[in-house]
Amino acid sequence: MLTPFAFLAVSLLRVAPPAPPSPDSAAFARLAQEFVLRALSFAPITATQNGLHRFVDPATGRTILLDERLDDVSPAAERRQLAYYRGLAARLHRLHPARLDPQTLADFDLLRSGVRYALYALTRERAPHTRPQVYAEALGNALFAPISLEYADTASRARHLAARVEGVPGYLAQAARNLERSNAIHRRVALEELAGVADLIRKTGTDFVRGTSSEARYGRATAPALAALDRYAAFVRDTLPRRPQGDWRMGEARFAAKWRDVLQVSRSPAEMFARAKARLAEDRAEMLRLAGPLHAQWFPAHRHGADSLNPVVSEVLARIGEEHANRDSLLVQAQHDVAALEDVVRGRRLLSLDDFSNLRVIPTPVFMRGVYGVAGAVFAPALEPKLTTFYWVTPIPPEWPAERAEAKLREYNRYKMLTLASHEAVPGHTTQGTYANMATPEWRRVLRSFAGNGPYVEGWGVYSEHLMRAAGVEGGRLRQGPPDRAQGDAAPRGQQHHRHRAAHPGHERGGGGAPDGGRRLPGAAGGGGEAAAGSARLRAAQHVPGGDRGLGGAPARGGAGGRGGLQRLPLSRPGAPLRGAAGAHRPEALFRRRGPVGVGAGGPVRERGDMKPQRHERAREAILPSPDKETR
Asked: Which is nearest to 623 in space by CA: 239, 210, 344?
């Protein structure tokens, strides 16, 4: 079960005026306010993503313009952070949790768990010393933020971008000095992402600053920055392999320690594994039950004997996988899916929120595609909640051979992509992020943004899938891909329903979150530890190695979005973007959660009308439930 902070978001639904805070609660509020500002000051990249642009140093009184800075990743900065978090842990220990009001107790638990993880990250995990890709990811986020987040006028943001590009050579020189060991997987990802950062500087940034007073300054900074990227890439490719090598797997003991404070659940990894394993046989039996009628219809001549589960399910899933978009149409399909899901939410009045005008569906930035393998949600900044929320969709790389592209498209077929959109976008994580950004006071909103409970967040995503199923949304009812190659466009509704369930077993049962048909807002308590178990069961039953947004063979993130994984505290630790719920697929990103700023690859984000396809009446009618279908 989850500790009490799993239910923190219920406060968003309460309309009664709160009681005056106790003295202990007021003391914690002052500590939390100080912490939020100080922690973000350690990580200017994360500060921009959260909407904090200036910080007044209490020691010197000097105002620091965070938007013009990159994170300080020097050993001295690491020592300062370590001293601060040790001091903060001691101050938290002196508080009396029993005297806190319920909301503040939730925040206390979040902060205490987050500080424990910060100390773990600084002393045991030490990502800046072992993972070359985190520097590429941090740079990409740092440079994309001024382009995509409209927190100031274009001229100011162009100045911020130019200043950060000027800092690239020094930043990467320190990165090379920090790295002590690595492994082949991390080096490969780093090289892929570095190419995306170079493209960002060379093309997207140049386009953004054109015509501003910072254009010349940016132009002067470009060549040194690109040369520094080339040197760092050569270092990763040629020098790091000669340094000590390690495994991306952290080992059982370290994994258990990280598990406790990142996932914030009371069950151990062994207990969760046992729960998932115990349900594997049941879920596989359910898959056979769902696949049986479709197999009899599609493959009447196939007989498989007593041990028929694997061949029957495999043949049915292979057939369902044929119904997918073209390799160049994933973004268009996602845009259609989100538009249709918005119509369902409004038409069925499923949520109190019916305005999705700040949501944009765009390509995943190139520099983050090593983390976001398929799609993910990215929340608006906690301190500037009116800015854009993004649903990132990762295109099929043009250099992929046809067979590799086809394999991915078969897994992320039209049924899976629609389910993914309901989980990550509407009414899933992007909607959840909108509600989360309503929390007050601001320190609480920011604290819960980067120290929130990952299983709770994913519980809402899974519940959103169930909610849309209860509303009559079925993947087979939305035609974005090619017509059914066997049935054409006239496949009966009952068969479409059966296909959707066969492709997504366990959704009827509600493996995490509330029962089907419940009308909770994203703030309602649900999901939690059961969501983690349900997700593990579902992935095991489906033989999907990576989860919602996974790359084959890589562990799933802990999604939205997202997932992106759970970002605990804003250390000046590179590669830890602030997202709402997107997904991490590489092994090292298993627990990142609150993710990166959202921006389009290849240029500044366009207006919503340019990004969104026309809403064809046929698509809208196809996804909406039939008039005679009862919605529980």
From this structure: 344
